[in-house]
Amino acid sequence: MTETLDRQLLDALVAIPAVSGHEDRMIAFLREKLDRYGDVHVDGIGNTSVALGPSDQRRLMVFAHMDQLGLCVRRLGDDGFLRVDRIGGVNRKALVARPVLVHTNDGRSHPASIGVMAHHLTPDAQRFVVPDVAELYVDVGASSRADLEAMGIAVGDPITFAPATSALGDHRYRAGALDNRVGVFILLETLRSLGGHRLPCQLHAVFTVQEEFNVRGSEPAARRIDPSAAVCLDIAVPGDTPDLVGQNDVRLGSGPTVRRMSFHGRGTLGGLIPNPGLVRHAEASARAAGVPLQLEASIGGLTDASFLQLLHEGIPAIDVGVPARYTHTPIEMVDLRDVAQAVALVRTMVSSFDDGVDLRRGTA
Prior knowledge:
Layout: H1 7-15, H2 24-34, E1 41-42, E2 48-52, E3 59-65, E4 70-76, E5 81-87, E6 99-103, E7 109-114, E8 138-139, H3 145-150, E9 158-161, E10 166-168, E11 172-175, H4 178-194, E12 202-208, H5 211-214, H6 218-225, E13 229-236, E14 257-263, E15 271-272, H7 276-289, E16 294-299, E17 317-323, E18 332-335, H8 336-351
Parallel strand pairs: 3-12, 3-13, 13-17, 14-16
Antiparallel strand pairs: 1-2, 2-12, 4-5, 4-9, 5-8, 6-7, 6-9, 7-8, 10-11, 11-18, 14-15, 14-17
Helix pairs in contact: 1-4, 4-8, 7-8
């Protein structure tokens, strides 16, 4: 099984700034890409979708969140420095001295740096301390608040890590915002590969917003579509680096994943145990497509599928993922073989989602 991936598309996706709540540039990009498939629908918060296939068949919602985590401007200092807060679960250890971009409401993007105390003047007691986000400052090259205002910078403006992409070895790809531009990419590539095929279901391809902010951006789209089932495309954290040995058996280069259990374990208490019929459908689709499938179960994270089971009469849902290292940092990493296999898996799941896929409970 070989998939030819559009690397230029992936490069373009990871370069578009789309912090949660500020996804308009990505929405505009997706509208242009989706227009060839049918009428594009954008709801009140930005969820962007298109429907393919017969309207009198079961509805299958396949979705990926388009937004990314980042920072936002909390205060404009009289000294010309910006104070910031997090949007989403940014890893504090990865923030200091990073190049960033400050995105203003008029469409400009200003290069900047997150400041760090000079090593030579850092007291011994602080040399191994990770500063709190409230202590950080962003240097955009301004000398005063008036300079910042002249640049169009305002409280609430989003900040992203500066884009950086590169290939590592024959198959690895590293970039910022792969969580979850890789899911967006898989869904776009699935649509491209399905072009012209007759589907046994009505496919609703949905690109959701604000997942990194409150993990509920998918809900308005799911309420509108009321799908028979939903497939969430996101990343999966592998246990193949020295610091995560023994956490799980997921590996880069060993295929896409199906998550058998997720639980946040804090705050929202959200999570998902997938519909057993959907798990069987994913496994059968993987066999049919010749795709190796990795199973995972984890505590500590959740996805846009976590609350769909509470909508309508309970929407059957499943998480399909791509292993990604160094998540929620400026540079994440995937294996492009996993990405290609995920496209083949999702395409097969869609093209075989007919009335024979039994999602009923209590029948086994």
